[in-house]
Amino acid sequence: MKIKFLSEEALQDLRANFETYKTHYYKKDDAWFDAYFQKEGHLIESKIEFEKTVFNNDENYMVSDYENVKVIYESLKHLTVAQATQERLWSGLAHVQMRDYIYYRIANDIEKKNDKRIQSAIFFTNGAKRSLFVHALARLWWVGYMTYDEFNKENPYWLTEFFCSADFSARCVVFFSSNFTSNPAITKGILRALVELRDEGVDIKRAHFVESTKYLNISGGAMVLDLLEEDEVKEMIEKRVRKVFGLELQNVTSVK
Hints:
Elements: E1 2-6, H1 8-16, H2 18-26, H3 30-38, E2 43-49, H4 61-76, H5 87-97, H6 99-105, H7 107-111, H8 115-122, H9 128-131, H10 138-147, H11 158-163, H12 168-176, H13 184-199, H14 206-219, H15 230-245
Antiparallel strand pairs: 1-2
Helix pairs in contact: 4-10, 5-6, 12-14, 13-15, 14-15
């Protein structure tokens, strides 16, 4: 299969006239969407090939989010970063080739007619960077890209699994909307530090993610973060989190 982008005309039409079209989203009106995208000029077939995706539709999002990060990243691992920032790509997939996943993932919002979330799940409504981690499909790819550990041959998704283990949506926004989101080495260094603390018995919560990203954002004013190695980031974050939360080795419940 080849990815089909929305044309700029179709993207702007769907965005600008959402109030007119929203009943079709509420009704999951496949017939209307199919007819709309059959109109000439609404879709552009790209040269980017991908294998048909089979998403996990578990009723527990804590299960399916992790599995679906793997599904979409494996299918689209060959995307360039530039391609993966394109709203027309992700909105095209959301409306056409991966529409069923959107129906599943925002089913509650569709039922409640939560227009704000419906729009943010299928369009970029939060600015160029933040939208990548709010859009229902784009965030799956970006979490995969930022957490995939190619050097761990046994399980390259071990950091992904940790990241998706709780508060997936909130963690996406808090963690990846920071200034260093374009550097996987930095995010993997942070996650490795938090995993180590977790393995010592620390109950990792949202506050640990917030402190980690805040600290690096502040540190970025005094150093070039992109020059740091993954191990250096891990050491910085581990020391910082231990200091701020009083997590000396003797205070945690168990030591790895």
